[in-house]
Amino acid sequence: MKLIHLTDLHVSERSGAEYHHLRRLVAHIIEHHTDAVVVITGDLVDSGRADEFEVAAEILDALAADCRLMLVCPGNHDVEWMGTFGGLDRRPFGAFRRALTCAREGYPYCMTVDGVQITLIDTTAEARGLGDLARGRVGYRQRQELARYLETGQPHTRVVAGHHHLYDDDLGLELVDAAEMRAVCAHRCNLYLMGHDHHWGLWREVDGVGWIADGGKSTRPHRGRLRYRLFDITDDAISCNTQTIEV
């Protein structure tokens, strides 16, 4: 199975660089990898507003229609802060997800494709304010459900995807319950996908997890080229290569 990881698109306006870079990314994926499952680990938009999701959907609709499958989970920028008394508004992201993907409501969301179990989590689920939202908090319920999924069935590969970083100890970036999440994933997860800190990175065999991939910011060029990772997953191996697109 082919799996593409995108993250931190931060689309806001049609005039923005992120909008035009996302168009390039989607065109490249559709031209070369329509047989891939595409996983987007949050921050699809910049402020969580409904109008931003409408702009992002103009591009991502083609990806959802033409690729094998598109799966998304929210990041902190996909939740709108409505002020001290208004709280957090998750409805625009929910409407976007329902319109573009086949996923049922709620997280964790788990499905198996060609022997690969893919589980997406909402790392903003237990956030109660701006500080919590920036760091992320998965919460006990999701961790328990994730643990159950990771013990269920007999897939040859298990993939977990969430927005916030499990290993970044910079102030305000590491998930509040990162240690608990690492314990859940240890020796159960073959590939963990994440974003949030906009740092491109790939690690092997950390805390009992086979591969850990930080997708950086997919809509930000690096040395004049956009990039994303393409994983080739078989029943006995995972391989990874970086796809690049000249801007």
TrEMBL record:
It holds the Pfam family Metallophos. InterPro entries: Calcineurin-like_PHP, CNP_phosphodiesterase-III, Metallo-depent_PP-like. Residues 1-199 form the Calcineurin-like phosphoesterase domain. This is Calcineurin-like phosphoesterase domain-containing protein. It comes from the Bacteria. Belongs to the cyclic nucleotide phosphodiesterase class-III family. The lineage of its organism: Bacteria, Deltaproteobacteria, Bradymonadales, Bradymonadaceae, Persicimonas. Transmembrane segments: none annotated. Keywords: Hydrolase, Iron, Metal-binding. One of its GO terms (molecular function) is metal ion binding.
